[in-house]
């Protein structure tokens, strides 16, 4: 039997309704400040779509475009102003930044309480202790899809392919928090020729690499849940990292690409903003 499609849109709609209600119940309208440095059509289009989503959920979106030659020090100063501005609940720095700015260095100046992307070391650290309230958006999106397809992760064999700071690593911590047995694979696993043997064991396979066709469909364990985070442009199409057709003949659930994790990621960003606003309102 072909796998059921694990689509992000219906989940996103459901969670957006919750966010909308929570935002409407706050004493003030939550505010997301978005900072772009220099001109970048892609980043600007992304910011526009964030603005549309934010406003539909009752969140004010304040877009700040700084000059391309803004120095790191000036950007830090700008972030610190936003940190001090009580009307701002969430801050996001749009990528890419000009080459003279180190994103990681800059992003760590965002107050952890306003960390819309959930990537500040203080928030990542809280995941380790099971106390996180602002989560990395893509990892949180994957967890939402798992809540639907496999609510009880206790003892499940989960293989995560990709160990980036934004996806694989925080995801491994979130999965451990739910008592899954987690194996994290990465380039080293592939170079050692061991990727296939791990993939074959996965009851739940999550792939976040960015290489089309990396995971052969024939490797998917019968009945596995497959979450493909990868986004690759091949000819004129967007595809994931997993060979979809063959994998969907073996899996029980599989995310389409596009339409799986993607639609949920921006929703998780908005959830963080409203959560940050709710925490600030509590004092
Ligand atoms: P990254 O480049 O930071 O990390 C890639 C990871 O893949 C690393 O852990 C690396 O070791 C591993 N890797 C590379 N080659 C490998 C191989 N041959 N075998 C096994 N592992 C290998 O990437 P990222 O930022 O985590 O993004 C990964 C993919 O997910 C990209 O396609 C990106 O576009 C996509 N993505 C999607 C969303 C979404 O919302 N859907 C969000 C973030 C990232």
Provide a compact summary of the structure.
By secondary structure, this protein is α/β, with parallel strands linked by helices.
Structure explained in plain terms:
The protein is an alpha/beta fold. The protein folds into 2 domains: 27-111, Rossmann fold, CATH 3.40.50; 136-263, 3-Layer(aba) Sandwich (Rossmann fold), CATH 3.40.50. 43% of the residues lie in helices and 16% in strands. It contains 11 helices and 11 strands. Strands 1-11-8-7-5-6 form a 6-stranded parallel beta sheet, with helices on both faces. A 3-stranded parallel beta sheet has the order 3-2-4, sandwiched between helices. Helix 6 packs across helix 11 (262-282). The chain is globular, with a radius of gyration of 19 Å. The structure holds nicotinamide-adenine-dinucleotide (NAD).
Quickly list its features.
283 residues, alpha/beta, Rossmann fold, six-stranded parallel sheet, three-stranded parallel sheet, 43% helix, 16% strand, binds nicotinamide-adenine-dinucleotide
Average residue-wise pLDDT? 97
* Main sheet makeup: 6 strands, parallel
By DSSP (H or I, 4+ residues per run), the number of helices equals 11
N- and C-termini, Cα separation = 52 Å
Helix content: 40-55%
Cross-sheet strand order for the largest sheet: 1-11-8-7-5-6
What ligands can be seen in this structure?
nicotinamide-adenine-dinucleotide
